[in-house]
């Protein structure tokens, strides 16, 4: 269980840094992705997109194994 939490946490960090490029593909605007503005800064928590990308990477890893 802790391994999955750690994996999702790392994917969330990577996804947040790649978000400007991935938004052009439509990822980051799924239902379940939270975006809000607070104190003049934009915050993004792409929960649904992170889970979707994690499942995609998991499927690729299983096929390559």
In short:
Helix 1 packs across helix 2.
Structural class: alpha+beta
With strands numbered from the N-terminus, the spatial order across the biggest sheet is 1-2
Integer tally of domains: 1
Number of helices: 2
* Rg, alpha carbons: 13 Å
Order of helices and strands: HEEH
CA distance, first residue to last residue: 22 Å
Question: Describe the biggest sheet?
Answer: 2 strands, antiparallel
Observed structural traits:
65 residues; alpha+beta; 2 helices; 2 strands
Structure description:
- The chain has one domain.
- It is 60% helix and 18% strand.
- Strands 1-2 form a two-stranded antiparallel sheet.
- With 65 residues, it is of the alpha+beta class.
- Helix 1 crosses helix 2.
- The model has no long low-confidence stretch (mean pLDDT 84).
- Strand 1 and strand 2 form a beta hairpin.
- The two termini are 22 Å apart.
Helix/strand layout:
Blueprint: H1 2-22, E1 33-38, E2 41-46, H2 47-64
Antiparallel strand pairs: 1-2
Helix pairs in contact: 1-2
């Amino acid at each position: 269980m802790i391994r999955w939490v750690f994996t999702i946490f790392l994917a969330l960090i990577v996804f947040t840094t790649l978000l400007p490029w991935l938004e052009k593909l439509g990822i980051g605007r799924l239902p379940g992705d939270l975006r809000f503005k607070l104190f003049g800064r934009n915050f993004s928590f792409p929960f649904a997109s992170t889970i979707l990308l994690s499942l995609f990477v998991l499927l690729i890893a299983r096929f390559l194994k």
